[in-house]
Amino acid sequence: MRGYQRYLAFIALFAVILAACGSSAPTTGGAAPSAGAAAPAAAAPPEKAPEAVEQPAPQKAAPAKKAPKFLVQVGVFSDPAKAEELKKDLDSAETIADVRKVEVAGKTMYRVLIGPSRGRADAQALAEKLKKLGYPGLLHKE
Q: Quick check: pTM over 0.70?
């Protein structure tokens, strides 16, 4: 009887190991094996691993819309020298102006611009400041 108890202890240990590994323990069918019976055959076939579920590719985030930039146009001239003169006057008034060459109705013109501002409200405030200094200011969306 002693050998039979060892056999049962071995089966119990084997069941614990299989349970720890995630497999199911073989069953003996409820009947006790006879002393001359052979050890049970190989364990049940391993369960199939769950198939990988294909996840959809992450969607790219839509690019954030950039806020429009606003410039203040202080003057427009056909003569580049006059545009540069106004630019120098504005630079001395602690503003940084830029002269840009543009084509308008087939003619070359030179815009004197200040900016860009952070938004429409900032550009309007700058235009008001320029009016107080005696310069006209027209908002120009870039």
A: no
Give the residue-averaged pLDDT of 72-82.
Answer: 91
Tokens 């630019």 sit at which residue? 87
Which pair of tokens denotes residue 60? 């790219």
Per-residue model confidence as pLDDT tens digits over 26-42: 555 555 555 555 555 55
Question: What strands lie across the sheet with 97-104, from one edge to the other?
Answer: 97-104, 107-117, 70-77, 138-141
For 70, counting Cβ atoms within 10 Å of its Cβ (0-12 exposed, 13-18 middle, 19+ buried), the class is buried
Residue 114 identity (one-letter amino acid) = I
CATH domain 70-141 topology: Alpha-Beta Plaits (3.30.70)
Residue entry with tokens 């199939």: 48
Cα(33)–Cα(47) distance, integer angstroms: 26
Angle CA(44)–CA(46)–CA(49) in degrees, nearest 5? 155
Domain ranges of the chain: 70-141
